[in-house]
Amino acid sequence: MPGPPMELFGYAASVYVRSVRLALEEKRLPYVLREVDPFQPGGPPDWYRAIHPFGKIPALRDGGFELFESDAILRYLEAAYPERPLTPTDPQGVARMTQIMRIMDAYGYPAMVWTVFVMEARGREEGWMPLAEGVAQSLRVLETLDRLMPEGAEFLVGDALTLADTHALPMMIYLAETEIGRNVIAEVPRVAGWLARMRQRPSTVATRSPLESG
Global pTM? Predict the structure, then answer.
């Protein structure tokens, strides 16, 4: 049984903080979100840099154990609290889950969040790539997820929720905050259906981003 609430450092608008929060919610582990904004003038405070020397988010404190990097945090939660697992039991499932997470990090995040979302929903003049390229890459990611998703599966890796779902969801929600993103998602019906189902989960509602509309 888990002990006192863990402390998760970060801010609610971050997709990587939300990825960890979704896992905590799905595993029903008690935690407290400690707001840290790495984009504030001067960067995060010194006390936080003592936890994360690079000043990014998230970081986790579980009792006397401190950890940063979202992937390391997710793996720790799975190993330390194996109840309600979010990792498949078979080698192919583990590999597919990890593949999808890395696809989202390497290709989804730059296109969906730091190009389409920041330019179309946040009004930035420039993203990490030109808008047309970001839209095209977002579609390529969605089509790849559709190809990798087993036939008839409810979730990205199969019939059980995994870290692939909780990792991809925050980025996909931000893509869906834009009209052009919604149009792209609609081109891939199975992924669109997955997103609609995921948005109904209590964990998604509990971790709602302050940047979400409606």
Answer: 0.95
| CATH ID of 91-203, from 3.40.50.1000, 1.20.1050.10, 1.10.10.10, 3.40.50.720 | 1.20.1050.10
CA dist 114 and 116 (Å) reads 6
CA distance 135 to 63: 43
Give the residue carrying structure tokens 């052009």.
Answer: 180
E strands, 63-158, where?
65-68
Average pLDDT over residues 180-189: 97
Q: Quick one: which of 150, 145, 147, 183 has its CA closest to 167?
A: 145
Contact 200, 138 (CB under 8 A): no
Q: What angle do the packed helices 15-26 and 163-175 form, to 10 degrees?
A: 140
Residue 60, H or E segment: strand 59-62
> Where are the domain boundaries for CATH 3.40.30.10 in the chain?
6-80
**Does pLDDT of 34 surpass 90?**
yes
The CATH number of the domain covering residues in 6-80: 3.40.30.10
99, 147 contact by CB (below 8 A): no
Phi, psi of 30 (to 5 degrees): -70, 135
Listed in order, the ranges of the chain carrying CATH 1.20.1050.10 are 91-203
Cα gap 35→127, rounded to integer Å = 25
Contact criterion met (CB below 8 Å) for 177 and 117: yes
